[in-house]
Design goal:
The complex is a heterodimer of chains A (about 110) and B (about 110). Chain A is mainly beta. Chain A has no helices and eleven strands. Chain A is globular and about 45 Å long. The model of chain A has no long low-confidence stretch (mean pLDDT about 95). By secondary structure, chain B is an all-beta fold. Chain B is built from no helices and eleven strands. In chain B, strands 2, 4, 5, 9, 10 and 11 form a six-stranded mixed sheet that branches. The radius of gyration of chain B is 13 Å and the shape is globular. The model of chain B has no long low-confidence stretch (mean pLDDT about 90). Classes of the chains: A mainly beta (about 110), B mainly beta (about 110). The interface of A and B includes residues 6 and 100 of A.
Chain lengths: ~110, ~110
């Protein structure tokens, strides 16, 4: 069974541009969440989607947005990029079975803003 | 908001030695996850603990959850160079089972 797949793995953007990152969850998983990882702040929750609905959002500006499609694939978008948006963006998909939730992460997308 | 404190921040051990990493929460723990990360890569799921007193093992790694202390510990027996990496604990935040709050991580180096 394939794991969580994120594309692209690496990208470089210029300040002011926008970027879209893609995430394909593990087959059968309907919940997808996004995290930002930086050396200074560590791992921070961005948002989570379930059945195309955003259920929760972290403390990030409105420049960060996401969506989920009917096949559970998800995208996140960052508009008007700033240097501080340089980070590893991680997607996670989760399943709930036997009263227990299990959350699996992808390899991440490295974003560098110059 | 919930905060997780991991200790130690970094650890250097000789191959074959045992070690323990701790994760302490500022609030009640509902679900606690342990992950391993190689720098710049994704998080590898190790274990999820849910009930107080629960203990789980995966190969030479054992994790326990102490509900009263709001703490979890990760123990590695007979460490190997392959155990090297960053260990992260994450807790289900505010009872939401899909949002994790993470500790800052523990960097483990295993010298052969």
């Amino acid at each position: 069974k394939a794991g969580v797949t994120q594309t692209p793995r690496y990208l470089i953007k210029t300040r002011g541009q926008q970027v879209t990152l893609s995430c394909s969850p593990i087959s059968g998983h309907r919940s997808v969440s996004w995290y930002q990882q930086t050396p200074g702040q560590g791992l921070q929750f961005l948002f989570e989607y379930f059945s195309e609905t955003q259920r929760n959002k972290g403390n990030f500006p409105g420049r960060f947005s996401g969506r989920q499609f009917s096949n559970s694939r998800s995208e996140m978008n960052v508009s008007t990029l700033e240097l501080g948006d340089s980070a590893l963006y991680l997607c996670a998909s989760s399943s709930f079975a036997g009263g227990r939730n299990t959350i699996y992460f992808g390899e991440g997308s490295w974003l560098t803003v110059v | 908001s919930q905060e997780l404190e991991q200790s130690p921040q970094s650890l250097i051990v000789q191959e074959g030695k045992n070690l323990t990493i701790n994760c302490t929460s500022s609030k009640t723990l509902y679900g606690l996850y342990w992950y391993k990360q190689k720098y710049g890569e994704g998080l590898i799921f190790l274990m999820m603990l849910q009930k107080g007193g629960e203990e789980k093992s995966h190969e030479k790694i054992t994790a326990k959850l102490d509900e009263k202390k709001q703490q979890s510990s990760l123990h590695i027996t007979a460490s190997q160079p392959s155990h090297a990496g960053i260990y992260l604990c994450g807790a289900e935040s505010g009872g939401s089972n899909y949002k994790l709050t993470f500790g800052k991580g523990t960097l483990l180096t295993v010298n052969p």
